[in-house]
Amino acid sequence: MAQLIQLDTFESDAGDLTVFEKILPGEIKRVFYIRGEAGHERGGHRHLQTWQALICISGTCRVVVENTETQEEFFLNSPEKCLLLAPEDWHVMNQFEEGSILLVLANTHYDKDDYVFEPYPQLMSYDNPIS
Fold it and tell me: Whole domain around residue 81: which residue ranges?
């Protein structure tokens, strides 16, 4: 189940230092970022094995997450917020503010066979996600 985590941040006159450690199970094996475009969506899948951590390091975005039990939405609007996604968490990222950058850390290397593109049928259809 998705979990919003507040990352440790250390402030000084020279700027802030935000630390990401001991969040993902295993090791970080892949890091990528998405430069979101206003009015567009990303994601629309879940994984078989991969855990992911999402941090909007610039700007804002919304992440809609559903699994076999619930559907939730999270607003990532601070680089100190980290959304941890379990493999079973179907997720869609949208409502990107122009110029947003979403950083994603994963505990597996890319494997196209790890992606599941069908949403859970027992919950709200993705065609009608949380507004």
Answer: 3-116
Residue type (1 letter), 122:
Q
Q: Residue 56's domain is classified under what CATH number?
A: 2.60.120.10
- Active-site residue 91, yes or no? no
pLDDT tens across 37-54, in order?
Answer: 888 899 999 999 999 999
Beta bridge partners of 46: 116
Could you give the number of structural domains in the chain?
1
Q: How many CA atoms lie within 13 A of 75 on its CB side?
A: 7
* CB-count burial class (<10 Å; 0-12, 13-18, 19+) for 25: exposed
Q: Which of 45, 47, 91, 109 is catalytic?
A: 45
Give the global pTM. 0.88
127 within domain boundaries = no
- Considering only CA atoms, which of 17, 72, 62 is closest in space to residue 42? 62
